[in-house]
Amino acid sequence: MKLVFKILFTVFIALSVASCIDELGVDTQEGRRILVVEGAITTLPGPHRILLSKSDKYGDVFDGFIRKETKATVWIRNDEGDQVFLTEGEQGTYYTPASFSAAAGKKYTLHIILANGERYISLPEEVVPSPAIDSLSFLFKELPTLDQFNPNTGIEVYVRWNDPKDTDNFYLWEAEGVYVVNTKPHLFEGRDANYVPVPMPKDCCDRCYVYDFSLNTVLRVFKDNLTDGNNNAQLAAFIPDDGKRFMEKYLVVVRQYSLNKTAYQFYDLLKNQLSIQGNIFDPPPATIRGNMINLDNPDAEVIGYFRASDVQIDTLYITRAEVEAPKPILQINDDCRVLENSTTTKPPFWK
Amino acid sequence: MGNNFLKLTLLPFFLLAASLVFGQRTIGNDDGSKGPHTVTVVVEDAQDRSPLIGANVLLKNNAGGTVTNESGEAKLSLASGVYTLEVSYLGYETILEEIRVQGKGLMRVRLSANAQTMNEVVINASAGQNVKSTDLGKQVMSIETIESLPPFVGEADILKSITLLPGVSTVGEASAGFNVRGSSSDQNLILLGGAPLYNPSHLFGFFSAFNTELIQDVSIYKGGIPANYGGRAASIIDLRYKRGNREKWEGNAQLGLVSAKMSAGGPVLTDKLTVMVAGRASYSNWILKQIKDANIRKSRASFYDMNAIVDYDITEDFNVRYTFYRSSDEFRLASDTSFSWSNQNHTLSFNKSFKGKFLVDLRAVHATYSSAIVDRSPFASFTLDSRIVDQGLNLGLKYFVTPEQDISFGAQTKLVEIQPGELVGTNPRFPVNPFIVASEKASESGIYFQHNFELGRYLGVSYGLRYNQFRFLGPNDVPVYDPLLPRNEENITEFNNFEDGEVIQQYDGWEPRASLRVSFDENTSLKIGYNRMFQYIHLISNTSAIAPTDVWKLSDPYVRPQEVVQYSGGIFRNFNDNMIEASVEVFYKDIKNILDYKDGATLLLNNNLESDLLNGKGRAYGLELFLEKKKGILTGWISYTYSRSERRVIGSFPEETINKGEWYAANFDKPHNLSFVGNYDLGKRTKVSAIFTYSTGRPVSYPLAKFNYFNSLNVAYYDKRNGFRAPDYHRLDISLTWGWDHPKKWLAGDFVLSVYNLYGRRNAFSVFFDDIPGAPPQAFRLSVLGIPFPSLSYKFDF
Question: Domain check: are A52 and A36 in the same one?
Fold first, then answer.
């Protein structure tokens, strides 16, 4: 009898894994090259960044290579007629002067003349004031995973704020972090000529501050239609525990951007598009446009949104002791400076 | 041994049959008139007294005869005299009876199921009925047929079986919807014992929500829809309940891989009051809990359904029936969200027959569909409840003027209330403002008239007219949009307030229906038909399965009723004494006011849903071929359909136009559909069955380009809907049924071993484009059940 049940289980387990995702290997149609504009100006000091590129065929880089739009003339103008020109840094990346910042309540337009002479303009973007962040808090979170031996855990950072009553408010959150890593450079092993590991202790350095720019993997946008005027809480960031981040202390910086309605709609559509996984509840794909217009041909397609936001910032320290079930500390036998975005210099704001 | 046992039990029936042959019945009172007199012959199943539809009633030595109608009645027009009547029905013993006709009258003939063929012959709609009747686009499937098909996880499935018929398609696994002749799935009216079902599926469409044990048969009307049906624009799926056995209690039980079911029925007061009850429940929750993987262990998936049918015969001609049905589903993802839905129906009907000449049917229906989403996320957690209440009263009258002519008429009215959603926060520390999408209320009434008659043997005419009145009722605040601007929230200029019960908008509709049959001989006929139907309730969904996130919406000042005009025709021919039935049918549909969605539409919790909806036109056309072998060791059918379903949406503004105003394929448009169904009888209660289906892949949108955005992710850019297709769908299922001859009843059951998707085809449930790390951005396919899936079930009688 026991065997019968075992068989039944096996069969039902088959059902749970019977749904699978595989590559389809279809060739999409020849891609169209459409101008893509991504960028924002905020009430923070500059430089602010605008990225220009062209879309290409859907597929890998050999199939369709995303080309940056270089040598374009880019400027921003406000509703009082003041304008500021942007200068190109890396290819296709244009920066405002460091002194430039947007002002709440003002309207801005982005102007672009491409190297080939095509002219583009954004619809006027108004900077809606953002309410201040009340506080940040965090929760330990275990995410489902198929790997039993390596739980998928991390810290959810929630933002609380008082939503202004009787107005439609739209928000976007981004987060960055800084954390301390302790490594063991004296245990470093190099390789000899025959690729045999040999101890090659390093003198420096065993303590670094690592800047974490990889938290914004999901577009976190929100509208207040269901919680208008409340003291709201929303998930602003998820910090995965990789055995490095919570060795000692983690500082998370949350930026709360105000959006206007059209910006929210654009980001929400983009978020939906990025979340499609073929599931039952998936929304159908939709055409993503934005607020840019081709001046010479208003019917021509342009992708992207030029955003102008007010910003509120708050920070929070999370110590290892506060993490409910921290992962074992990853032992790194090397100079901590080899880690990406790491420095031995203590950040001026670090407490 | 077993055979002898069966023969012994059937001996009384043989004796009864023999006695009937030698006896003579007298019909009518001798008033001296020579006639002709109308003799009504009611043919019933001897065991449960259910009417046998399409039984042959023949006069010996006269070559005359007819078949019984849906009440199991056949009308004969006979001069006074003595006749020998031969009554036969496929799978039943034939009865010969001598009658003396003196005047008009009624006689009942009870046929017993034929012991020799009980487990061998697939009992289907009566022989030759497809050619002889004026019905067009109608198909009847018996439960025996449905149960003979390879089951999925041991469950015979009515809706999945229907999709094997010509003109009916489905978008794939895990989708409750099916599409009839190029129409959307909400255009099917599913009636269970006369009450509408809003969600006919369990577990997102893996199973139908009906227990087959209580269902007598299923009628599918794809075209030529009689005027007594209304409210949905494409098809009627009418599931008729069985009646409890009048003579003794009996029942059966089935154990399957994920669920078990049981049914029992019998007399409470002999010959007067019978009941039948059935229940089905899944034990999938228990199975899920045994699995180590937390992702699965913390998930829940369960369902149950139950039915009760109570029949009381006040007199032999006056029946009262109460039915109850409830289905329930709960589905919880390991994360934080759970979904649940349930149907609950009550019906009460009075059925009186006046000498078999005049039938009155009065039916009260109360149907509820509710669904809920519960979010358990740590902060702003909520529950979202929605509900539909549908209450109706139907009166139907049917008058058999002559054996060749009948007239039906009646009136129907119902009140439908939809509460699309009420959101309630469940965490007091982080309040979610209660949000209620305004309820909708409407009355929908119809009166109809239907006349069927035959002119000689070669011409049949069936026509009808239905008049609908739909009233969208208050209380409601109806927004007024600036007519010069796109219809969206910003452009609302004011709200018109309506009091409770006030008529906000009224739509009237005339629905003519007609079909004509021309028979060339006994075995061949040509039929043409015309149909017009309105629909006042719409399923607003942009997901592929009927899910709790879907919204039902009534027609209002902005959402006009859908209107479908269908022209159809067909040639029907039978061969080899009705052993093989063949048909070719064509149809064309003109659809007005179909609904589609703006890009990025918000369907849930939207108080101004009309601002996210677009009105368009549709057209569908197709060709259906059907060939069925009904008798013999090998039975089954081949069905092939070529059909297209297209839409066009042109609004006043670019955002209200889809695909630049060009025609595009509907989400469920699948041009080629082919099904093979075969049952091979190996004798001794052993049988092999197989299904093969093939269809064109469903339409998908392919990106025109990719662009870099949001941390240099590759994002797909779409500009047209449904321009491409998912890979073709095909699948083979087989099953082996084996009955054990054992003297103990509970051991003498049937084992069914089946394998779903025998060769493990990975059919695409969906095709999507994604930029997953480690691979170039590309198209992916999600397949559900992409491996051969075996299952075993055991069913026995008690």
Answer: yes
A197: helix, coil or strand? strand
A23 in a domain, yes or no?
Answer: no
Interface test with A, best of B706, B758, B794 (most A CBs within 10 A): B706
Residue numbers in chain B where pLDDT is lower than 70:
1-25, 30-32, 47-48, 61-63, 114-127, 173-176, 288, 290-297, 333-336, 378-380, 430, 542-548
**Does residue A292 sit within a domain?**
no
- Does B122 reside within a domain? no
pLDDT digit string, tens, across residues B303-344: 899 999 999 999 888 999 999 999 998 887 666 678 888 999
Q: Are A53 and A195 in the same domain?
A: no
Which residues 597-636 on chain B approach chain A with CB closer than 8 angstroms?
Answer: 597, 599-600, 605
The range of the structural domain enclosing residue B33 comes to: 2-111
Q: What CA–CA distance (Å, rounded) separates B571 from B568?
A: 11
Q: Are residues A84 and A38 in the same domain?
A: yes
- Hey, what are B666's tokens? 């509907």
- What is the residue type of B214? L
Choosing from B57, B82, B111, the residue where a domain stops is B111
CB-based contact B783 A20, cutoff 8 Å: yes
Q: What is the CATH number of the domain that holds A67?
A: 2.60.40
Contact B604, B549 (CB under 8 A): yes
Q: How far apart are CA B417 and CA B440, in angstroms?
A: 6
Domain that includes residue A326, residue range = 133-259+312-343
**B635 in the same domain as B667:** yes
In a domain, A19, yes or no: no
Q: Best mutation site among B153, B655, B704 for testing chain A: the one with the most A CBs within 10 Å? A: B704
Which residue among A146, A234, A287 places its CB closest to the CB of B718?
A287
B247 and B204: one domain? no
What six digits make up the tokens of B103? 């005047």
**Token digits for A36?**
């893509």
Domains held by chain A: number = 2
pLDDT in tens, B408-464: 999 999 999 998 887 888 777 767 777 888 889 999 999 999 999 988 888 999 999
Whether residue A58 and residue B703 make contact (CB cut-off 8 A), yes or no, is yes
User: Buried b / exposed e across B465-501, counting CB within 10 Å, b at 16+?
Assistant: bbbbebbbbbebebbebeeeebbbeeeeeeeeebeee
Q: Tell me if A285 is assigned to some domain.
A: no
Determine the Cα–Cα distance for residues B442 and B472; give it in Å rounded to an integer.
4
Nearest CA in chain A to B719: A287
Q: Are residues A122 and A140 in the same domain?
A: no
B436 Cβ under 8 Å from any chain A Cβ? no
pTM for the model: 0.82
Same domain, B230 and B266: no
B599:A55 CB<8 A: no
Of A8, A64, A304, the CB nearest to B706: A64
Task: Say which residue, A98 or A286, is predicted with more confidence.
Answer: A98
Partners of B676 in beta bridges: B638, B692
The predicted complex's ipTM stands at: 0.86
DSSP string, B100-127: EESSSEEEEEEEPBPTTTTTTSPP-SPT
> What is the SS3 assignment for B15?
helix
Chain A's closest residue to B203, CA to CA, is: A280
Closest CB from B293, B380, B721 relative to A233: B380
Report yes or no: B500 at the A interface, CB cutoff 8 Å: no
Q: CB B706 to CB A57 under 8 A? A: yes
Classify residue B157 as exposed, middle or buried by CB count within 10 Å of its CB (0-12, 13-18, 19+): buried
In chain B, the residue whose alpha carbon lies closest to the alpha carbon of A230 is: B431
Q: State which of B237, B272, B288 marks the end of a domain.
A: B237
Q: Which of B433, B599, B775 sits opposite A286 (nearest CB)?
A: B599
For residue B689, which of B675, B670, B674 has the smallest C-alpha distance? Answer: B675
